[in-house]
Amino acid sequence: MKKLILLLLLGSQWIHAQDTIPKSPLLNKRNEVRVDVLGLAYSRLNITYERFLNHNFSVGVSGIYSSNKKNKDDFDEGNVNSFTKYEVIPFVRYNLSQGARSFYFAEIFADANGGDFREIVLLTDASNNDYYAIQKSSYSDLGLGAAIGYKYYIKDQFGIEFLVGFGSNMFNKDKSPDILSRVGLGVSYRF
Question: How far apart are CA 2 and CA 8, in angstroms?
Answer without folding.
Answer: 10
